[in-house]
Amino acid sequence: MGNKYALICMDLDGTLLDEKKQISERAKKALYEAKERGIYIAFISGRMLHAVELIEKQLGFKCIEGSSAGTYITMDGKCIESHTMDCDDMLFVYDNYAKKYNIPLWIYQANNWYVTEVDEMVENESKIINYSPEVVNPHELARRWKEEGIRPNKVLIGADEKIVDEIKNNLESADLQNLSFARSAPIYLEIAPKDVNKGTAIAEICNKLNLDVEKTIAFGDQELDVSMIQAAKTGVAMGNAPDHVKEVADIITLSNEEDGVAVAMEKYVLN
């Protein structure tokens, strides 16, 4: 009998990883068994590629990577899709939000991470992923990139939850033509090119591998994962997900601290 699913799409933080940023042995075993059965596994994460690859090392094998919130997709060491925003849109977010609230703008381009300044959140992320971002003047960076034909994949604002609320509400009323945005955590707002998200990443991976989207299952826990949970044939929300994420899912599993991914994979993918 063939596999029910051909592609597993997995968020990392808050989903596959526990609060110590580790994959449980049970989840490793489930993912390895899926791989052995010929099922593709894609890690679709807000993380930069370098930080996704750290998790692959922990797992013990390479997967498809949909890094930077699905804007930068790599397979077998090659980029198969890269969605970018205009440098002027990056500056719009910096000038109107990051600068106004006196917080860093995190800028992602391919497998590179830049920040406009370093604060405690940047330092914490840097320790978690073992990578130090380059501190840049965004206007100088934009000028250089325009000359070189380079554009960012996404930008991120990391701040107190109330500040993120204010910025998100403001963006929602700004009627932006070129950008989309969603939270990847209460303190993180991810800003990407319009109509590019984790859900579109699933479609692009299926297209590249000639897979039927009806044979996909996706796991997530945050607003950023909603598009992926909705795009997959079967969407799984973690027990630790907010209610609005659970509401769009087909299945609600246990939390990331209770091996929710492994439990759902054993029941729905590997049975």
Question: How would you describe what is shown here?
Answer:
This protein starts with 6 loop residues before the first strand and ends with a helix. Helix 4 (87-101) packs antiparallel against helix 6 (138-148). It is built from 11 helices and 14 strands. It has helices at 25-36, 49-59, 67-70, 87-101, 120-129, 138-148, 161-173, 198-209, 226-231, 243-246, 260-269; strands spanning 7-10, 40-44, 64-66, 72-75, 78-82, 105-109, 112-115, 134-135, 154-158, 179-185, 188-193, 216-220, 234-237, 251-252. The protein has an 8-stranded mixed beta sheet, sandwiched between helices. Strands 8-7-6-9-11-10 form a 6-stranded mixed beta sheet, covered by helices on one side. The protein folds into 2 domains: 7-82 and 196-269, Rossmann fold; 87-193, Hypothetical Protein, Haloacid Dehalogenase-like Hydrolase, Chain: A, domain 2 (2-Layer Sandwich). Helix 1 links the parallel strand 1 and strand 2. With 271 residues, the protein is an alpha/beta fold.
SSE diagram, text form:
Layout: E1 7-10, H1 25-36, E2 40-44, H2 49-59, E3 64-66, H3 67-70, E4 72-75, E5 78-82, H4 87-101, E6 105-109, E7 112-115, H5 120-129, E8 134-135, H6 138-148, E9 154-158, H7 161-173, E10 179-185, E11 188-193, H8 198-209, E12 216-220, H9 226-231, E13 234-237, H10 243-246, E14 251-252, H11 260-269
Parallel strand pairs: 1-2, 1-12, 2-3, 7-8, 12-13, 13-14
Antiparallel strand pairs: 3-4, 4-5, 6-7, 6-9, 9-11, 10-11
Helix pairs in contact: 1-11, 4-6
